[in-house]
Amino acid sequence: MPTSRKILDLSKLEGYRWLPTGQSALAGPTLERFQSLERLFLGWAATVKAQEHRVPSVISAEQLKKVDYFRSFPHLMTLPATLAPDGENLRRFTASEPVDAQGRLRETAFAPVRDVLTPAACYHFYVLFQDAVLDRPQLLTTCATCFRWERQFVPLQRQWSFSMREIVVLGTPDEVETFAGRFRERIQRWCESAKLPVEWKTATDPFFNPKKNPKALMQQLESVKTELVFDGKLAIGSINRHGDYFGEAFNIRRKKEPVHSACVAFGVERWLFALLTQFGVRRTDWPLSLRR
Amino acid sequence: MKPEAEIRRALREWVVSHGRGVTEKTLSDETPLLERRVITSLQIMDLILLVEELSGKRIDVQQLKPGVFHNINAIMLRFFGEMN
User: What is the ipTM of this complex?
Assistant: First the structure.
């Protein structure tokens, strides 16, 4: 198993700031390295002519319900709440100190919550293509700020909000398989040439109560999720084959059948962690393809 | 334990009646069950219970490896291996 013996000292990292709420702020050379990774992923997306999208920060609960998101991942969701808009409620809210001594908002009544802060970038594409009949494969890419609540946060490795770059295919089983195979090969070749110690491992998504969730069992049996693991510990990316799960849930069709789909996902902060651990923050010490 | 042919027949009958998009004629012992979503998360636990019943052995779900429910041949090999 390829491993790294290096340890990253974040306190000495120029332009890096960790917020104990589980978020990273970047500037200076750390931000530049982050941006070079984004260019690398965009370059990979361009090799399959993936169309770039900018997606909203929230996604409708009604749409996520179609893939049983709330029973599968209730522990991860983060909700965008707004105050109930009636005048009396807003007056009560502003009448006293809105934030208490512990930093908690003294909310009065909330309006009904109908959306969720984006938990994964690719969901937006299945909603976008809902009810479509595709006459050719769709190749798409986006980088979304995603939100997942966790019990513990670790700088750059496990964050409440993080950047997820995804490249997605909607197509026939063969088109999807070709896509997944090519990306695995491309990523593998790049990591080898960059001397980044990684390996591929079969994985499952972090389901709530996985022992009692048949969806978790299905992932375990099908081997549909393969993670790219840095240093034997940290998953920095994954290739996910969905079969026709999303095609059926969102009624997207191709050649008279529910479309198949797959995505390649990169956790950009985790890639940043891996590359900083391995090569430090100086541009000239990074792999050639990331020095632009 | 029941004879192999009887177990295969029981598995096929169950998949045809509970699975999606297959008939007696189109289902073979090599038809990919999960990959083609003949069996989905809605049926997988019931299929495991059927295999337990036919084999007379309890299955530790956490220990199941990818591919063991790929098709009827794979199920036979993994859970009724001593018969082949």
Answer: 0.88
